[in-house]
Design a protein that fits this description.
2 copies of one chain form a homodimer. In chain A, helix 2 crosses helix 3 (96-111) and helix 2 crosses helix 4. In chain A, a hairpin with a 4-residue loop joins strand 8 and strand 9. A 7-stranded mixed beta sheet of chain A has the order 6-5-4-7-10-16-17. Chain A has a 4-stranded mixed beta sheet with strand order 11-8-9-15, covered by helices on one side. Chain A is built from 10 helices and 17 strands. The longest helix of chain A has 31 residues, at 138-168. Helix content of chain A is 36%, strand content 17%. The first copy, chain A, has helices at residues 35-43, 50-69, 96-111, 118-131, 138-168, 194-203, 220-231, 244-248, 275-285, 316-319, and strands spanning 8-11, 14-18, 29-32, 175-179, 208-213, 236-239, 255-258, 262-264, 269-272, 289-292, 298-299, 320-321, 324-325, 332-333, 338-341, 348-351, 354-356. Chain A is α/β, with parallel strands linked by helices. At the A-B interface, helix 7, strand 6, helix 8, helix 9 and strand 13 of A face helix 7, strand 6, helix 8, helix 9 and strand 13 of B. Strand 14 of chain A pairs parallel with strand 6 (236-239) of chain B, so a sheet runs across the interface.
Chain lengths: 369, 369
């Protein structure tokens, strides 16, 4: 079985996602056919993970076009329809400006769903560069947009593969790798960043044992990372986030590898809340802490992590679970979705271009990575 | 309203406890009338917290006597029956050896319920010293046992009060204190150790804001610490255990105060899993990390934390919650109930005798504390 997952696909005019809220109990593929559905899926974390959000943003713009001008039973976009033959049915009276106006609005709506992951905005910006070109044919513009979106998807898969190969060189046979949250196939087009490193090492014949932080409040480690490892027959041990000191004090953990949602010019990296705690603990016990992320995650416009916008989420994520109240209902909470790990705690940033080591300096733009 | 809680009482021959598993949803007082019920309540964490476990162990031995020889409607022990008048009804044909034999067996059974908290064994040993004396009268022995058990309870309350007064001197008006797990009234005879410091500071007129780690897997912070603070009208903010770096990086947290289940001769302190992570994070951000515990928690027979026995608990605490599966059922887990914070991360140990500072050296026995 391939280690790749069909996390997000463009099928018959809809973005089809594995609904990650229902895992591991149920494996449900959900068809997103309106901008509202795309936004709901992003906000409710049915689709999450910085690279996967990039693809969702790009496909979401195509969904906006389908929603507005979809014909009876027809569809315009599909990731298998290389020549976009579906566009032959597109209404002839829709102008380039009509589409641009719709896309500007959809881009704004989708872009506002989650502030921290830069990949979502990066992918939407790539699409905007295409539709803002000087088009004379609506069909040509839409064909180019479909190709750009599918390219973002495919490049992400290739990025994961390349990142995995570079990262796998850091792992010895028998490595024990701790990770936080889920930076696996479900967080990307299908292969993963942090877990992609593990998968690539296993594909290269090494044995790897994964230790997964459960990752409160939303338990992506328990629900998604454990599930992906078991699916791929990789031994996995689950622990509560507070148990990492206890685990690392035993002295046999090889390294930590986590994903990232945004990386500032100096290497400070935003990732799921709890990541920085793991980095601090790794530092105490001398365990190398790596960040695995595509270079599109690097935002050279931010000097350091203090300017990364951090999403605050609702109190009930912390005060209740599965409908059961776990704290008095009037309890105040501190519930940021992300934290920022200072660059000095990061032993290396694993990208599709290779493993970068400190000091990090991405001020020159993405190409510096 | 008093800040004290009726966490455990000796009432009409039973140990009455607040069932902490049901909090904060339901406040239920449970009567423990058999050794089996006492052991179940300890193992299921209906009563927990090192000092409270000490009292439970002592009262549990009295429950064993009630269970074996309880008369119709009568009872022998009550914390309000100062002269143990109930013992006038005790069967005259029961010998000192009969009672000793029963208590030896009950002490073993109760002592085996939880291995890490030294206070449980310390309290049982105190009771054993009493019943192993050269008694000629069964009633005299039982009266002395009841008085010893109630003394353990009362000394614990006084200990909390004294500890609270010493600790409160460390807190300025407006202090922001982060804590882990529950070391409040529910963890003791009724006033608390770490939270007792906060309560004492508030009683002394200072304003204090508590930040409570939710404390996975069993959420004592969310369920118990938040509940106690709200009950005592103390502002409390709940966070997931992984969020402490994010919180401390803002620079306005005054200190951390946590309880302990056992402290080795060099000051290494075992406490609820996740405590050491908080200590490591505090060290990174320069926030003083205090342990608050009675001197009975110090075990001078252990040179350092590596010899503290650590209880491993069941996988389903991590793989499910409130009956909902949160990880694939076949997931392996690492689920120690406690971790050990190295003494070098502890700014001070707050005891009923004062605040101790490093280097710690408790080899001379308890009195060294």
């Amino acid at each position: 079985m391939s280690m790749e997952l069909p996390t997000i696909r463009l099928i018959k005019g809809a973005a089809e996602i594995i609904d990650q809220v229902l895992l591991p109990g149920r494996y449900v593929v959900r068809r997103l056919q309106t901008v509202d559905q795309v936004c709901e899926a992003i906000k409710a974390l049915r689709v999450r993970g910085a690279p996967a959000l990039g693809v969702t943003g790009a496909y979401g713009l195509l969904v906006a076009v389908e929603e507005k001008w979809r014909g009876d039973g027809a569809h315009y976009f599909d990731d298998k329809d290389e020549d976009s033959k579906g566009l032959e049915e597109f209404p002839a009276d829709v102008t380039v400006d009509d589409v641009r106006s719709l896309l500007d609005s959809a881009a704004r709506t989708i872009g506002e769903t989650r502030p921290t992951a830069v990949n979502l905005h990066w992918a939407i910006d790539r699409m905007a560069k295409v539709y803002r070109k000087n088009w004379t044919s609506t069909a040509d513009m839409l064909r180019a947009l479909r190709n750009e979106a599918v390219a973002i998807y495919r490049e992400d898969l290739e990025m994961c593969r390349a990142l995995g190969r570079h990262g796998a060189e850091l792992l010895e046979d028998g490595a024990k790798v701790i990770t936080h949250c889920n930076a696996g196939g479900l967080a990307t087009s299908g292969f993963g960043t942090a877990l992609g490193v593990v998968f690539a090492a296993v594909e290269a014949g090494k044995s790897v044992h994964v230790y997964a932080d459960e990752t409160r409040p939303l338990l992506q480690g328990a629900r998604l990372t454990a599930w992906e490892c078991i699916r791929n027959k990789i031994p996995v041990t689950l622990l509560v986030d507070g148990a990492s000191s206890s685990l690392l004090s035993r002295g046999d953990i090889s390294c930590a590898i986590v994903g990232a949602d945004r990386i500032a010019a100096n290497g400070d990296a935003a990732n799921k809340i709890g990541t920085c705690n793991l980095a601090v603990v790794c530092h105490r016990y001398g365990v190398p802490f790596y960040v695995a992320a595509p270079s599109s995650t690097i935002d050279p416009s931010l000097a350091d992590g203090s300017s990364i916008p951090i999403e605050e989420r609702a109190a009930d994520e912390v005060t209740s679970f599965a409908g059961v109240q776990t704290a008095p209902s009037e309890t105040d909470t501190f519930n940021p979705a992300f934290d920022v790990t200072p660059a000095d705690l990061i032993a290396g940033i694993i990208t599709e271009r290779g493993v970068l080591h400190p000091p990090y300096d991405f001020k020159g733009g993405e190409d510096a990575a």
